[in-house]
Amino acid sequence: MSLHAPASDLPIVFREVGILAGAVTILDRISIDIFPGPPTVLIGPNGSGKTTLLRAAMGLIAPSRGRITWGGRDASPPTRRAIVFQRPVMLRRSAAGNIRYALDAAGVPRVEREQRISELLSLVRLDGLAHRPARRLSGGEQQRLALARALARNPAVLFLDEPTGSLDPASTKAIEEIVRVISARGVKVVMATHDLGEARRLGGEVVLLHRGVVIERGPAHAFFATPATDEARKFLAGELLI
Question: Is residue 186 included in any domain, yes or no?
């Protein structure tokens, strides 16, 4: 199965993007480019704007000011983008039924769906649970099923919002392995995490956010070895950013 989709939505470009909620600034003058390649990992304290940035890049939130473009276009239907949240909602169907619903919504021809379901369940290592009610799966299994559902869209870009935030170490390892596999197959992953170890393990690029501002960004190896800002050094040392 090929998960590689034409990267027509890439690069995703933020230029001076601000997002407000009433009088509160959630994102403040964000200017970043999201290019094809290894995962881009967003880190930062709670409330730093990671989830809002993901939602804006997905196209779920419009900027209050500034501009976002997808592959050079101001408007791009999210047919080649998908997002998975920390606590995904499972449909009242089997594991296979959840994926079948996603394939139907993505317009996959009926004759191809059963093969795709089998491939996606295998990818996320839920082969033996196809007929299990999705809501009876464990938390880690539900998150893997949510990944399979998102991949049913054959996205070029996959946004993950704290996908391992509430999982045990074994489930976290399984999710990380899936991220590595799909990234190697050409899907651009943009992921928010609170786990610095996970950011080290998965990140090709790291973006540190604080109070809705990009504090520092760069290759993961350089960021963790020689952070350039005081805020990054404090954050990596476990200090609170105020």
Answer: yes
